[in-house]
Design goal:
CATH architecture of the largest domain: 2-Layer Sandwich
Order of helices and strands: EHEEHEEHEEHEEHH
Oligomer: single chain
Distance between the termini: 37 Å
Number of strands: 9
Radius of gyration: 19 Å
CATH superfamily of the largest domain: Pseudouridine synthase I, catalytic domain, N-terminal subdomain
Strand content: 25-35%
CATH class of the largest domain: Alpha Beta
CATH topology of the largest domain: Alpha-Beta Plaits
Shape: globular
Number of domains: 2
Structural class: alpha+beta
Length: 249
């Protein structure tokens, strides 16, 4: 009798050509590609559940996924059949609570008014973050942590919280952009009724901090590094994003 098996894994993926994590009819998604490849390596009755439901275009270096199926789950074999832009990098049999998640947004321009952006970030952390939760995702904490820095001509917005709602990080970045362009003042952020979302291509889920002991899957880490290094040879506009992604593998 074939036994039920389960394992928790961390996934790397480049979300550029996918319509997000969740399966959709007639569209390429991360979940769809993962489940299809699990079947190729002999798994039956496959089910997967991710800790974060990333949107179309969003990438990840630390998406935590529970894989359940009948049959042996061979992760090295899985890495060989997965598309070049998806890899299993870590695995464990059991996990505890998800303590926090961290997203990195690589804003492709320099701030014109960095002091205003810093002021806005403090207001968003403590007074606006929860109000940006509209639907979908984990119910966030009432506040978040925002770290601002620069890298090779780009501005980095690193946002950490216990949970995030639908497009919440991208809305934070859009608020900072609006303040930077003086379309709104920091003191006016709390009164905004509607906030658009920033471009998803610049966003990476870089860390899922979850209780548990993780084993490195060297075949997946090497696959992810090779993919990123090949990508860096052929792109310019997104190079800062992928150089930073290497640091989180």
């Amino acid at each position: 009798m074939v036994q039920d098996k389960s394992v928790y894994v961390k996934l790397f993926y480049d979300g550029e050509r996918y319509y997000g994590w969740a399966k959709q009819p007639s569209r390429s998604t991360i979940q769809g590609a993962l489940e299809e490849c699990l079947q190729k390596v002999g798994c039956e009755n496959v089910a997967t559940r991710a800790s974060s439901r990333t949107d179309a275009g969003v990438s990840a270096t630390s998406q935590v996924v529970k894989i359940s199926c009948k049959g042996e789950i061979r992760l090295d074999a899985l890495n060989r059949v997965l598309p070049e832009d998806i890899a299993v990098t870590h695995a464990t049999q059991n996990i505890g609570r998800v303590l926090s998640k961290t997203y990195l947004y690589v804003y492709p321009e320099r701030w014109r008014n960095p002091e205003l952006v810093k002021e806005a970030a403090k207001i968003v952390e403590n007074e606006v973050f929860e109000a940006l939760f509209k639907k979908g995702g984990s119910k966030p904490s009432s506040t978040c942590s925002i770290a601002l820095s620069s890298f090779k001509g780009a501005e980095l917005v690193q946002v950490s919280a216990k949970g995030f709602g639908y497009q919440q990080v991208r809305k934070i970045v859009k608020l900072l952009e609006m303040v930077d362009q003086k379309k709104v003042q920091p003191c006016e952020l709390k009164a905004l009724k509607s906030v658009p979302s920033a471009d998803s291509r610049w966003l990476i889920l870089v860390q899922t901090n979850v209780e548990g002991e993780w084993e490195k899957i060297e075949s997946g880490i090497e696959k992810a590094k090779k993919y990123i290094n090949r990508k860096l040879l052929t792109i310019r506009a997104l190079s800062a994003k992928w150089e930073l992604a290497l640091r989180f593998l």
